[in-house]
Amino acid sequence: KPKTALPNVTTLEEADTNQFAQDIIQGLSGNPKTLSSKYFYDGTGSRLFQQIMDLPEYYLTRTETEIFTRQQEAITKAFCAPGSFDLVDLGSGDAAKTKILLRALVNQAVDFTYVPIDISLDAVQELQLSLADELPGLKVAPLTGDYFEALQQLQTQSTNRKVLLFLGSNIGNFSYPEIRNFLKNLRQYFVAGDQLLIGFDLKKDPRVIRSAYDDQAGITAEFNFNLLRRINQTFNGNFNLNHFKHFAEYNPVSGEMKSFLVSTHNQEVTLHDLDFNFKLSAWEAIHTESSFKFSESQIKELAQEANLQTEYVYTDSQEYFADVLFRV
Ligand code: AVI
């Protein structure tokens, strides 16, 4: 990808190809085999995810949009303490949901700066253009790259109070130890009075959850396959996509929604540029993603462990999803 940026986008590190290579070799050498879902999001992957968010089965985006649409006043009021603040949006993407809150804040003439942070430079640039068009008065200071590097960068350029958004159940793509670690790391960038609004997908009818990750149109399967396509392209590999099946399984005890690519044949795959080859047995699975679902008590427990105060829990009419506001 070209390393170009709009003049006022601060570019941190490009997705690190060495790290990608290392993670792939490690994941495919292990037992069970794994690939990290953080590598889903190249250009094609991000476009497929946009399509997923519009699928009838994928309730997450719609329910969080409902929360923001119906409760925008309460949510934005809860952000506003005296003085200006930075509204930091981790993994902003196209910010479709955040824009509901941004519009409400702009309409209330609140003094704040919007700081979208995304790993994808393309996404941040597109967002910046669309915001200039849709909310011309808004102050925007985007950052791209790794979340924590971006937060570090933000420390050097602003001393404003922070309200951090981590929406869309992105937190569900972390394991519990990763969530604990993430919240602990975040705390380093906060001072007393800062706030966090985190979107959690809630436990519900297991069938509703499973079909969100195994849609009729097969877009989620494509999204999963795209990871193999990306590896083929990046490292001159020969994954044969016709020799895999997408499979998604939900465990209602652990709340873990797991996605796999299952090998339909005994096969050998070579990633030429990495001088790496490995074998897959027939029906051996590669675990590609976990999307955890939470109960309210699990959320409160995580908050307590991270020493965060739970201020409000906003839910949709079906209680499918919760946006929880925490205070440091
Ligand atoms: C980005 N993340 C919250 C999505 C999820 O629901 O875990 C990614 C996704 N995977 C399959 N469908 C959507």
From TrEMBL:
<dbReference type="InterPro" id="IPR035094">
    <property type="entry name" value="EgtD"/>
</dbReference>
<feature type="domain" description="Histidine-specific methyltransferase SAM-dependent">
    <location>
        <begin position="20"/>
        <end position="327"/>
    </location>
</feature>
<dbReference type="InterPro" id="IPR017804">
    <property type="entry name" value="MeTrfase_EgtD-like"/>
</dbReference>
<keyword id="KW-0489">Methyltransferase</keyword>
<keyword id="KW-0808">Transferase</keyword>
<protein>
    <submittedName>
        <fullName>L-histidine N(Alpha)-methyltransferase</fullName>
        <ecNumber>2.1.1.44</ecNumber>
    </submittedName>
</protein>
<dbReference type="InterPro" id="IPR029063">
    <property type="entry name" value="SAM-dependent_MTases_sf"/>
</dbReference>
<dbReference type="InterPro" id="IPR051128">
    <property type="entry name" value="EgtD_Methyltrsf_superfamily"/>
</dbReference>
<dbReference type="Pfam" id="PF10017">
    <property type="entry name" value="Methyltransf_33"/>
</dbReference>
<dbReference type="GO" id="GO:0052706">
    <property type="term" value="F:L-histidine N(alpha)-methyltransferase activity"/>
</dbReference>
<dbReference type="GO" id="GO:0032259">
    <property type="term" value="P:methylation"/>
</dbReference>
<dbReference type="InterPro" id="IPR019257">
    <property type="entry name" value="MeTrfase_dom"/>
</dbReference>
